[in-house]
Amino acid sequence: MREWNDCVDLEFEQAGKRKFDLVVGADSLHSKVRSLVFGPHDRFEKRLDYMVTASETTGYRPRDDGVYVMFSDPGRMVGRVTLRDDLTLFLFVFTLDAVELGSLSDRSGHKAVLHARCGDNVWECLRTLDALEHTNDLYFDRVSQVRMPKWSRGRVALVGDAAYCVSLMVGQGSTLVITGAYVLASELKKSSGRHIDGFANYEKVLRAFIGVKQRGAERFAGAFAPKTRWRLFLRNQIINVAAIPGFARITFG
Ligand SMILES: Cc1cc2nc3c(=O)[nH]c(=O)nc-3n(C[C@H](O)[C@H](O)[C@H](O)COP(=O)(O)OP(=O)(O)OC[C@H]3O[C@@H](n4cnc5c(N)ncnc54)[C@H](O)[C@@H]3O)c2cc1C
Q: Whose alpha carbon is nearest atom 8 of ligand 1?
């Protein structure tokens, strides 16, 4: 990628060289566009002290339609949710130190880590891991956010997880990327060709809002997989109380 006064030259691995007026990177938490233009991932990654693994399989039983079923003990959470076409999605969130992890890019080690952290004979853990035995489609990553001082530089802007990943902890990342794209498009249109203004206004409209979501996710991370028995107990009591009609709306808005 090379930026000029009036355009950006891009070279694609499989589509050769092309010129563009503007480049918008919407290429996820580990954005390549971000690393090319703004610097390495580490500079913008805020780790939330957990790992996440997700995968899905067909035919798993039991199924509890419309319910997120989870098992927790200190420092880990295993959950399942039913999807269409007899699919079940499994989610594992757990603490892990760097020694246990080895390398994130060592894909062959991911299942071993998962077995070590969640493969004991409690709840449906063993059955769940058996069900995933033959899948190669395993999402495995740190739970992280992306926090950047600016979401654009020159003719390049970032949207969604690439710019401001809030993490799965708030369950709103998909909404936020669509909102971001909508605001960016609308601000670029309003700027009538002055892309610097469009990019600046996109950030002005969204930055404070995203900041609230990110701080909320950071606080909530500890409730997703509490690290001590006491915190787990407290979290469970809050979930129980939140089931009282109207309580969640009044307390959490
Ligand atoms: C386990 C898990 C559960 C989640 N659950 C929820 C949830 O319940 N609700 C919710 O709202 N959010 C959830 N999220 C968050 C949500 O998935 C993300 O916030 C959202 O997908 C971000 O959208 P995005 O478009 O920025 O990035 P992505 O959805 O990651 O899309 C980026 C796209 O860019 C492509 N790409 C990347 N690099 C390149 C490249 N070099 N060349 C070409 N293409 C490339 C990728 O293949 C991908 O298609 C969850 C996240 C995780 C990890």
A: 171
d(Cα 121, Cα 64) in Å, to the nearest integer? 21
| Residue 88 exposure: Cα atoms within 13 Å on the Cβ side | 23
Distances (CA, A) of 204 to 34, 154, 209: 20, 16, 10
The conformation of residue 145, written as its DSSP 8-state character, comes to E
Integer Cα distance of 179 and 159 in angstroms: 9
- What lies within 8 Å, CB to CB, of 83 at 6+ separation is 56, 89
Residue 169: closest CA among 237, 203, 217, 230: 217
Q: How many residues does the chain have?
A: 253
Q: Does residue 213 contact residue 176 with C-beta atoms inside 8 Å?
A: yes
Report all structural domains of the chain as residue ranges with CATH numbers, in order of start.
2-44+147-224 (3.50.50.60), 48-143 (3.30.9.30)
Residue 117 Cα to ligand 1 midpoint, Å, equals 25
Separation of CA 178 and ligand 1 centre (Å): 11
Centre of ligand 1 from the C-alpha of residue 53, in Å: 14
104-146 tens-digit pLDDT: 777 778 888 899 899 999 999 999 999 998 888 899 999 999 9
CB distance 82 to 234 below 8 Å: no
Nearest to 35 by CA among 4, 1, 9: 1
In the structure encoding, which two tokens stand for residue 104, read together? Answer: 């994130």
Per residue in 19-48, pLDDT tens? 999 999 999 999 999 999 999 999 999 999
